[in-house]
Write a structure and sequence with these properties.
2 copies of one chain form a homodimer. By secondary structure, chain A is of the alpha+beta class. Chain A has helices at about 5-15, 15-20, 50-70, 105-115; strands at about 25-30, 35-40, 75-85, 95-100, 120-130, 135-145. Chains A and B meet through α2, α3 and β3 of A and α2, α3 and β3 of B.
Chain lengths: ~150, ~150
């Protein structure tokens, strides 16, 4: 597959209007690595910090983003099965997070999905504010599935 | 406190633009009981079902909604500490959920917040589709705090 990562991530965001509305965007992309950003603007809650749901959107999108830059998006698609999110401290700036996948994990997912019609993967990411403080921890379980 | 629940819930939704954008609304409100609805329209994901983040928004809002109809919103405000969300089956219709609080729990939270400056409460809610099937289970831990 050819690595037009920016285009594929943009399409992924565009395909879910509720994500698009948050202003979430990729800020760094390379093979098996993504850095995403959620702007504070438009995502403030009733007490002036970033809304829990916008932090969730950022954390959950790591599953889609790492899929886009690690797996064959012409053959597979991801869904999310379960997420645990822990809010550590108030997020008062834009928030970023990074996600990676090893080549071995990408190979395992590809092989298992072709063999079994599905394969689960777990991610744990830290969401950080502009001072590099962890504001939120997100653990997700996702499942890769083949297009019919 | 006087029970203008519809007005206070509307203000709560308006106070978080990212929630407002989803179209989430209350459909039943009475003392210590709320039923909330997330419309499918505007909340569809890349595979045609309701987006995980919109289901999160609905589940997480139960903490704010039950606070509005159970506790003194002129004295206290809630924050969310932690959420676990499990996606059981695809949501292909509008999704609703109900949340309740016992009088004893409301009294405990009021007393502890006045005494200790904070009090935690847990909620577990089922999100259901139009066929009354459970699509998602959300467990949240919230904290009540006093206004200064």
């Amino acid at each position: 597959m050819k690595e037009n990562y920016w285009e594929i991530i943009e399409k992924a965001v565009e395909s879910v209007p509720a994500i698009k509305r948050t202003g979430l965007k990729a800020v760094e992309l390379r093979e098996r690595y993504a850095k995403l950003l959620m702007p504070l603007e438009g995502n403030i809650n009733h007490v002036g910090m970033m809304y829990a749901g916008s932090l969730f959107a950022l954390g959950e999108m790591t599953g889609g983003a790492i899929y886009c830059v690690s797996l064959d998006y012409t053959k597979f698609y991801p869904i999310v099965k379960e997420v645990h999110i822990k809010f550590i401290r108030p997020a008062l700036t834009d928030v970023t997070t990074t996600v990676t996948m090893t080549p071995e994990e990408a190979k395992r997912l590809t092989r298992e999905t072709l063999e079994n019609g599905k394969a689960d993967f777990d991610l744990k990411v830290e969401l950080k504010d502009a001072n590099d403080e962890v504001v939120t921890i997100v653990q997700g379980t996702y499942q890769l599935r083949p297009f019919n």
